[in-house]
Design a protein that fits this description.
about 500 residues, DUF5691
């Protein structure tokens, strides 16, 4: 409505600079304009306000919509799954009132597992939540069924509920959708994922290339080497860095072999006599050759040490060891992992390189070497935890949590299964003492990991300080409420 824009412009400029005239209004308002403008009892500001008020009401009274015959509304497809029962839906409403996204995710997961749907009234609410929480979208899509898919066609913000094929999303999706598609495909068919990226490579910009390359870390293998090495002439440094990072994860890549070749030139085994010269022991020495191929420094190896107590040579060696598969040391010495580990640990000069070996063990996922490192009392190797069996990992974490509590809790926060009762007990002993760091948000975000058995023990974790004890008492009430909701979810879906 152009006439309304004219009124807005007049209001912005002021009646001293501009007046609304009859030609700027719609024909229906011309007679009213004449009555107002001819009223001598009103000043120019009052006349403008009268006209604006009348125009506003006219504008609000409704207009005839544009008729577009080509628009048709399809009928939603019939649902194939049953709706949830009243109890599960009531719990869902309580979770929505509580605004607990972790509990909502837990509820949605149970709904998907039990192959049920939410009632129609709640579909818009869930779709709107999905706008802001991407991790919930797959579950919301499944729980809203055919009606959710149909309804999303009327709101672009809900179109994540439209079940497009992976290839369609790869071709036409948003950057986040394309990354997710490549990530999922990389998990199931790494070769096909690489082929898709190869085909679209020339059309991607530098930022897109760098982000998409990160997804290739999943199931990275020797099959990726040729294509990745062919990209090393890319102009963007950001893209080059991602390519180099990926190549450093493949034990047989040219970069890794170049590092190992330099280390082999630096290794020397010597026989040293023990006390009185009656026996000798084998000692490992590592010293870089006088001349080093400068090309290694173009691959990310840094020349200068940032620590005063570590020389440039030691720093370079440390980096090379951290990027070299541990099994190559076994092959070089034709010995067991344990004996090679002893070569390093029994030598004061080489003991400093053990953390580098630990980093390499995690990088190349070597289970045999991981077992050796978890025996170290003074260090905590978080990158090695996924390589341990569940029982060994729990035992290791219980042993380390007192000295490295925050790091252990950070790792456990990303678990998919409930914490063991033993771990939960130790975690709560620490978190109860630090109520500002581990506040309500912490327990809310991790409620899916907290076992219900902890309810009986909450009181005994109360801090000795009166103020902190009061805070913990209030926190316990909140934790119990969350756990009870979680139990109700399981109970309702299992009926």
């Amino acid at each position: 409505m152009q006439f309304w824009d004219n009124i807005i412009n007049t209001a912005l400029l002021g009646t001293d600079k501009k007046q609304v005239n009859a030609g700027e209004l719609c024909p229906d308002l011309s007679s009213i304009f004449g009555d107002v403008s001819s009223n001598e009892t009103l000043d120019k500001e009052e006349k403008f306000l009268h006209i604006a008020a009348i125009a506003f009401n006219y504008r609000q009274s409704g207009i005839t919509p544009v008729l577009r015959k080509e628009i048709t509304i399809k009928v939603a497809q019939p649902e194939e799954l049953p709706y949830c029962n009243k109890q599960t839906l009531q719990i869902l409403k309580e979770i929505l009132d509580e605004e607990s996204i972790p509990l909502l995710k837990f509820w949605l997961q149970q709904c998907v597992v039990n192959q049920q749907l939410v009632i129609l009234d709640l579909i818009p609410t869930l779709l709107d939540i999905g706008r802001h929480h991407k991790t919930l979208r797959p579950f919301i899509t499944a729980c809203c069924g055919k009606r959710g898919e149909w309804l999303s066609e009327f709101n672009p913000d809900w179109n994540f509920s439209v079940r497009a094929t992976a290839e369609e999303l790869w071709q036409t999706g948003t950057p986040d959708e394309r990354k997710k598609v490549l990530q999922l495909l990389r998990e199931t068919d790494p070769t096909k994922a690489r082929e898709w990226l190869t085909q679209s490579w020339s059309t991607e910009n530098a930022n897109s290339k760098a982000e998409l390359l990160k997804q290739l870390k999943i199931n990275i293998s020797a099959e990726d080497i040729n294509w990745l090495e062919s990209l090393l002439n890319e102009k963007s440094q950001k893209v080059k860095d991602e390519i180099l990072h990926l190549l450093k994860l493949i034990p047989t890549s040219g970069i890794i072999l170049q590092y190992w070749n330099l280390l082999q030139q630096s290794i020397e085994l010597k026989k040293e006599k023990k006390l009185l010269g009656l026996s000798s022991k084998t000692v490992l020495q590592i010293k870089l050759p006088n001349v080093i191929d400068e090309s290694i420094f173009k691959t990310g190896i840094e020349k200068l040490s940032s620590q005063k107590n570590i020389s440039e040579e030691e720093y370079i060696i440390y980096q090379l060891i951290s990027l070299t598969p541990p099994n190559l040391w076994q092959e070089h010495f034709n010995d067991t992992a344990e004996n090679v580990y002893i070569l390093f640990s029994n030598n004061k000069d080489l003991e400093r390189y053990l953390p580098a070996l630990g980093l390499a063990t995690g990088r190349f996922k070597n289970n045999e070497w991981a077992i050796l490192f978890i025996k170290e009392e003074s260090k905590y190797y978080q990158d090695l935890l996924p390589l341990l069996t569940k029982d060994i990992r729990i035992k290791y974490l219980l042993n380390k949590i007192e000295a490295f509590a925050d790091s252990v809790i950070q790792f456990l926060s990303n678990e998919n299964e409930e914490w063991s009762p033993e771990l939960t007990s130790v975690i709560f002993k620490h978190t109860a003492k630090n109520p500002y760091q581990y506040n309500r948000n912490f327990y809310n975000e991790h409620i899916h990991l907290i076992p219900a058995t902890i309810i009986k023990e909450l009181e005994k974790y109360a801090p000795p300080e009166e103020y902190n004890a009061k805070m913990w008492s209030n926190m316990c009430e909140y934790i119990i409420k969350l756990i009870q909701l979680k139990q109700q979810i399981l109970s309702a879906f299992n009926q």
